[in-house]
C-alpha cells in the first residue's frame, strides 16, 4: 500500500509536468500568433504584399504610404523645433555675461 | 604827483599779479597731485573692470554664434535624413504597389479587363505622384517658413545685442570720463555705472522675453503643412475611388475578385 502510494505520486508528478508543458506550449503558440498579427497590423504595407492584388490592398498600401510620410514628417518637425530652441540658452547668456554688482 | 600815484598803483597791481601768478601755479599743481592721491580704487581699476565686462559680452556673443552655426548644421543634417527617409518609404511603397499591380494584371483575362487594369494603374500612379509633389511643396513651404522665422529672430537678437553692447559701452565711457574728472568720487561713479549696466541688461532680457521664441511659429507652420497634406490626401482618395469603381465596373460580375 505504501509502495503503491509512492508510485502513484510519481505518476501524478509526471502527468502534472506534461500538462504544464502542453499548456505552456499552447500559450506560446497563441502568443506568437498574436504577436505576428499585431506586427503585421502595425505595418499594413507589409501585409499588402502578401495579399493578392486587389484594389483594397492597393488602397491600404497607398494609405500606409501617406501615413508613413506623415509619421516621418512629424518626427522631423519635432527635431526642427528642438533645433530651433537650441540657441536660446546661449542667446540669454549674452544678457547675463557680466555681473555689475561685482564692480 | 597825480601821475606818480598812477605809476605806483600800476606797479603795485603788476606786482600783485605776478605774485598771484607765481603762487597760483604751485597751487594748481598741488591740487592735481592731491586728487591723484585721493583716487578711489574703483577709478584706479575701472579700465580692467571695463575690459572684463566687454570681454564677457564678446565671449557670450561668440558662444551664441557658435550655437547658431551648430543649429544650422543640425538643420542641414536633419533635412537630409528627412528626405532620405521619405524617399526610402516611397521606394518601398512603390515596390509593393508594383507587386500588387502585377497580381491585379494576372486577374485580367479579357482585353477590356487588361485595358481597365492598365488605366487603373496609370491613374493611381499619377495620383500618387501628384500627392507626393504636393506634399513635397508643403514640406518645402514649411522649411522655408522655419528658415525665415530663424532669420527674422536672428536679426532681432542681433539688434538687441547691439543695443546692449552700445549701452554698456556708453556706461563705461561715462564712468571712465567721470573718474578722470572726479577721481575721488568713485563710489558715486560706481553706483551710476552699476545702474546703467543693470538697465542695459534688463532691457535686453525684457526684449528677449517679448520676442516669444520660435516654438509657436514652427507649430503654426506645421499646422499649415498638415492641413495641406490632408487636402492632398483627400484629393488622392477621391481619384483612387473613381479609378477603383471604374475598374470594378470593367470586371462586372468578377468585381469582387479585385
Kindly summarize this structure in a few lines.
The complex is a heterodimer of chains A (103) and B (258). Chain A is mostly helical. In chain A, 84% of the residues lie in helices and 0% in strands.
Number of strands of chain B: 0
Coarse morphology of chain A:
elongated
The N- and C-terminal alpha carbons of chain A lie at a distance of 102 Å
- Mind describing the biggest β-sheet of chain A? none
- The low-confidence parts of chain A are 38-50
Helix content of chain A: over 70%
| Proportion of residues in helical segments of chain B | over 70%
Helical region count of chain A?
4
Distance between the termini of chain B: 145 Å
Keywords:
heterodimer; A: mainly alpha; 4 helices; 84% helix; B: 258 residues; mainly alpha
Task: Explain the overall architecture.
The complex is a heterodimer of chains A (103) and B (258). With 103 residues, chain A is mainly alpha-helical. Chain A has one domain (2-88). Helix content of chain A is 84%, strand content 0%. Chain A is built from four helices and no strands. Chain A has helices at residues 2-42, 44-50, 55-85, 88-95. The longest helix of chain A has 41 residues, at 2-42. Chain A is elongated and about 95 Å long. Chain B is an all-alpha fold and 258 residues long. Chain B has two domains: 1-37; 41-257. Chain B has helices spanning 2-37, 41-107, 111-181, 186-211, 215-251. In chain B, helix 2 (41-107) packs antiparallel against helix 3 and helix 3 (111-181) packs antiparallel against helix 4 (186-211). Chain B is rod-shaped, with a radius of gyration of 41 Å.
Task: Give the topology.
The complex is a heterodimer of chains A (103) and B (258).
Chain A: H1 2-42, H2 44-50, H3 55-85, H4 88-95
Chain B: H1 2-37, H2 41-107, H3 111-181, H4 186-211, H5 215-251
